Amino acid sequence: MTEQLDRARRTGQSAAGGPADSGTTAPGGGAPGDEAPDRETPAQLSRHSGAITTGRHRVRYWGVMALLGGLSVFFTAGILGYDNPMPFGTEGYWLIARMRAETVLVIGVVVLAQAMATVAFQTATNNRIITPSIMGFESLYVAIQTGAVFFFGIAGVTLVTGLPQFLMQAAAMVLFAVILYSWLLSGRFSNIHIMLLVGVVLGGGLGSLATFMQRVLTPSEFDVLTARLFGNIGNARSEYLPYALPIVLAAALLLWWRARRLNVVALGRNTAENLGVDHRREVMLILTLVSVLMAMSTSLVGPMTFLGFLVATLAYQFADTYSHRMLFPMAILIGYTVLAGAYFIMRNIFYAQGAVTLIIELLGGVVFLIVLMRKGRL
Amino acid sequence: MPDTTSAAPHRHRSARPEPPRRSLQQTPPQPPSPFPDARAIRRQRRFTPALLIGILVTLGLLLLSLSTGQYAVFSEDGFWMFGITRVPRTVALVLAGASMAMCGLIMQLLTQNRFVEPTTTGTTEWAGLGLILVLWLFPGASMLARMSGAVTMAFIGTVIFFLFLQRVTLKSSLIVPIIGIMLGAVVSSFTTYIALMTDHLQTLGIWFAGSFTRVVEGRYELMFLVLVVTVLVFLTADRFTVAGLGRDMATNVGLNYTAVLFLGTAMVAVATGVTATVVGTLPFLGLIVPNIVSLFRGDDLRSNLPWVALLGIATVTACDLIGRTIRAPFEIPVGLVLGLLGAVVFIGLLLRQRRKGGLVA
């Protein structure tokens, strides 16, 4: 929970009525009202426990948001228009721009999915050091793809590519996740840590299974499979975009709608139940949505382990609030800036678009190590 | 390479639980007590008929391993072939299986956590990083140089992990392996990056799959370093048992805790590094074997050690045989078989403990 820093500062402004409608209303979940009872001294330090504590905090939040927004726009424009070989306005120019717009869209969808999923997941598990990507979603995806080719040969490739199949796969991943979570989170000894560890180990096992099956494939089957298995940012499976986009949006909207409940879930199981939130049901729902988001992101661009972690950690750092309605936009903007920026720079300066995900992994990995060493309690 | 053998000075001999000494003033010689000497009990417990059966089963598996393969070893020059590939491979199986299982055991004692072993603390990934670094900085380096790199990095990585564990208060013991696996993912992303930059990506893929296929005469001699580690573990087992009580308790009974910690880390690093260089990664081995032995036999380290070694050897050999026969004449790397079976067993162990309510955070 956020510390109320510089509480002693005389701000003269109350927190309510700021530009952020969502963040400044009294938070759902039974937090006390945002004005302390000592109203006799209106010009005093206003004590309140809203999402934004002081005027300076608000300025900082919106300043960071504006900066990120500016950077996002800049990088988007860069990706779309920089170094286009055709003269402006010709048909070829727009063709190229359209292709690039697709990349921008992919980046947007992936970031939306990863940022929302990671923040929600860390809230549900009450742990800010783990990410949903170690829970074996990618491995499951790879295992499904490999399994189809393994059991049905080259014909199996048609079983895993194509839109109905894509939706089936996503459904299978979500179903798997729901069954796993509901089974592990039910019963007398339900324990989120066991669930996590089982997920991680299962991920490793599925990875081994997939590699095992790949070893058994004939070289031609293997070639077909690897060509189909993963895209990356520069070469995403964009034929899935029209389906992934609405699904991701729907899941993200659901999370946004339940953001206030998330604020309560973040307080931990006992507190949340005292405040009248069905904690287990809420966690189940969050994890289901997270698995939907992760399934979409993975099927578009393949596995990304630390992007979500990087984004969520930076969002906590800059937003410095418990309110998910303020954390989510911040995380999404940070993610978009990072991913679009990395793509733009790698593509136009180093000519290595393939290494974008790797660079982000490295960056996120370093941040992970720093956070790990600074944390006192896990 | 740090000199590991001198890390345990002799004054820790006192750490061994000794039978109570009778003082000289006791005049009447007492009747033999109904409780015989603890050491005698231990000796009885160590060599049981069950252990003999275990040894026989393992030997049977090893013989199978010696006789499995594509080459007819009973032909003209078969014996020569037998000496070049079959024997080295089987020796490597024995050494890798025993040492990796023991490494898991040592790490579990030192961290007081049942879910710790070289693959769940990132030690293996650090070893891989060391390998790639050597390949990158000194192209054409010898096996010995690669191995030193792997051992050094594995040591550094394990120390980092232990330091981290000492700094952080944990809500649940289950967080430790999760953090370790994440840490491993960070390290392996670095390794992948270097490999990508230096065109060693395929080497990395081969290495990560962990296979005894490449173990032939001239490649496996380094494995005998692991034998040294294995013997050392047997010699210093009691110290690790005491260290497993925690720092305060161990210091109270006169153990130099830091020295034991260092010794354990060094041994784990050597075993992991050497095995990684010669064979590759063997996932979950150090986790499953000690836990299963504990399930059946409790926690007396000294009498469990032979069992851990045996079960480790038997597991690796069985998995290697599966990998060799399932698609003969092609081979499936043993690491994959282990990864698959290991994950299943690991989850089974977790859920079993959960049912008993032993894992309430």
TrEMBL record, chain A:
<keyword id="KW-0813">Transport</keyword>
<protein>
    <submittedName>
        <fullName>Iron complex transport system permease protein</fullName>
    </submittedName>
</protein>
<dbReference type="GO" id="GO:0022857">
    <property type="term" value="F:transmembrane transporter activity"/>
</dbReference>
<dbReference type="InterPro" id="IPR037294">
    <property type="entry name" value="ABC_BtuC-like"/>
</dbReference>
<feature type="transmembrane region" description="Helical">
    <location>
        <begin position="326"/>
        <end position="345"/>
    </location>
</feature>
<feature type="transmembrane region" description="Helical">
    <location>
        <begin position="240"/>
        <end position="259"/>
    </location>
</feature>
<feature type="transmembrane region" description="Helical">
    <location>
        <begin position="61"/>
        <end position="82"/>
    </location>
</feature>
<dbReference type="Pfam" id="PF01032">
    <property type="entry name" value="FecCD"/>
</dbReference>
<keyword id="KW-0812">Transmembrane</keyword>
<keyword id="KW-1133">Transmembrane helix</keyword>
<feature type="region of interest" description="Disordered">
    <location>
        <begin position="1"/>
        <end position="50"/>
    </location>
</feature>
<feature type="transmembrane region" description="Helical">
    <location>
        <begin position="192"/>
        <end position="213"/>
    </location>
</feature>
<dbReference type="InterPro" id="IPR000522">
    <property type="entry name" value="ABC_transptr_permease_BtuC"/>
</dbReference>
<feature type="transmembrane region" description="Helical">
    <location>
        <begin position="166"/>
        <end position="185"/>
    </location>
</feature>
<feature type="transmembrane region" description="Helical">
    <location>
        <begin position="351"/>
        <end position="372"/>
    </location>
</feature>
<dbReference type="GO" id="GO:0033214">
    <property type="term" value="P:siderophore-iron import into cell"/>
</dbReference>
<keyword id="KW-1003">Cell membrane</keyword>
<keyword id="KW-0472">Membrane</keyword>
<feature type="transmembrane region" description="Helical">
    <location>
        <begin position="141"/>
        <end position="160"/>
    </location>
</feature>
<comment type="similarity">
    <text>Belongs to the binding-protein-dependent transport system permease family. FecCD subfamily.</text>
</comment>
<dbReference type="GO" id="GO:0005886">
    <property type="term" value="C:plasma membrane"/>
</dbReference>
<feature type="transmembrane region" description="Helical">
    <location>
        <begin position="102"/>
        <end position="121"/>
    </location>
</feature>
UniProtKB/TrEMBL annotation, chain B:
<dbReference type="GO" id="GO:0033214">
    <property type="term" value="P:siderophore-iron import into cell"/>
</dbReference>
<keyword id="KW-0812">Transmembrane</keyword>
<feature type="transmembrane region" description="Helical">
    <location>
        <begin position="174"/>
        <end position="196"/>
    </location>
</feature>
<keyword id="KW-1003">Cell membrane</keyword>
<dbReference type="InterPro" id="IPR000522">
    <property type="entry name" value="ABC_transptr_permease_BtuC"/>
</dbReference>
<feature type="transmembrane region" description="Helical">
    <location>
        <begin position="49"/>
        <end position="71"/>
    </location>
</feature>
<dbReference type="Pfam" id="PF01032">
    <property type="entry name" value="FecCD"/>
</dbReference>
<feature type="transmembrane region" description="Helical">
    <location>
        <begin position="222"/>
        <end position="242"/>
    </location>
</feature>
<feature type="region of interest" description="Disordered">
    <location>
        <begin position="1"/>
        <end position="37"/>
    </location>
</feature>
<keyword id="KW-0813">Transport</keyword>
<protein>
    <submittedName>
        <fullName>Iron complex transport system permease protein</fullName>
    </submittedName>
</protein>
<keyword id="KW-0472">Membrane</keyword>
<feature type="transmembrane region" description="Helical">
    <location>
        <begin position="91"/>
        <end position="111"/>
    </location>
</feature>
<feature type="transmembrane region" description="Helical">
    <location>
        <begin position="123"/>
        <end position="141"/>
    </location>
</feature>
<feature type="transmembrane region" description="Helical">
    <location>
        <begin position="332"/>
        <end position="351"/>
    </location>
</feature>
<feature type="transmembrane region" description="Helical">
    <location>
        <begin position="254"/>
        <end position="272"/>
    </location>
</feature>
<keyword id="KW-1133">Transmembrane helix</keyword>
<comment type="similarity">
    <text>Belongs to the binding-protein-dependent transport system permease family. FecCD subfamily.</text>
</comment>
<dbReference type="GO" id="GO:0005886">
    <property type="term" value="C:plasma membrane"/>
</dbReference>
<dbReference type="InterPro" id="IPR037294">
    <property type="entry name" value="ABC_BtuC-like"/>
</dbReference>
<feature type="transmembrane region" description="Helical">
    <location>
        <begin position="308"/>
        <end position="326"/>
    </location>
</feature>
<dbReference type="GO" id="GO:0022857">
    <property type="term" value="F:transmembrane transporter activity"/>
</dbReference>
